[in-house]
Write a structure and sequence with these properties.
Length: about 250
Amino acid sequence: MQVTQPLLYGDLVLWYRLIDPVDDHAEEAAAIQVAIERAVEPRPETLLELGAGAGHNAFHLKRRFRRTLNDLSEAMLGLSRDLTPDCEHELGDMRTLRLGRQFDAVLIHDAIMYLTNEGDVRAAAETAFAHTRPGGAAVFAPDAVRETFQEGSETFSAQDGVRSMRGLDWSMDPDPTDDTFVTEYVFLLREGDVVSLVHDRHIEGLFSIETWRRILMGVGCDVATFKRPVDDHGETDEIFICRRPER
Ligand SMILES: C[S@@+](CC[C@H](N)C(=O)[O-])C[C@H]1O[C@@H](n2cnc3c(N)ncnc32)[C@H](O)[C@@H]1O
């Protein structure tokens, strides 16, 4: 299966933490933790995150779970090893990964956005299900679903030592009849007196809530939803938690 990774998860990896600060994940990670604790009996101890990227969620789940982190990008796993050296790291594609063991909980956060057709989402759901023990649960947390997606743009700026950046992202849906949208990123990257301009296109999957439910139930999960915080103003959306039946 071919994957074209955005520059952000390869050549631009040194800039990743400026774009997605670790602290921004604290509130959402807390909501995910509570949802897993409510869904899983006996008390969950082990967590596999598929597409765990730089380990930002995992960092906040540190006190609660023994974590195994997967990603397709060796460069992103390198960032994660620096931040969460106490975690186990596994390189691989979430559509095909098979570790040969099960966990109390599995999480797929925003990495699921990079699966852009139903077959790939189903393959990732099968991976999650295969790694969830009976009575455990898998969380699927897409950034957007068809019903709530809105086109929009944002600017951002950040500094870390000699590196500073100014950026713009612009999410748009050129063809509302297909299962994808596009986020165009433009970065101005400054290291001392050297400035470069980079354009990075992210093609992301966009499915209806009904499609999500059909795929998740299709792999054998009991599907429920829970609210997660999406901004600092008390806004929430709904993401999926899928319990694997005892038998
Ligand atoms: C936005 S980052 C994830 C950040 C993560 N939520 C965190 O807390 O740090 C998205 C990640 O998805 C990974 N990814 C994309 N497609 C993947 C696949 N098929 N299997 C595994 N990882 C994948 C990318 O390499 C990238 O690291």
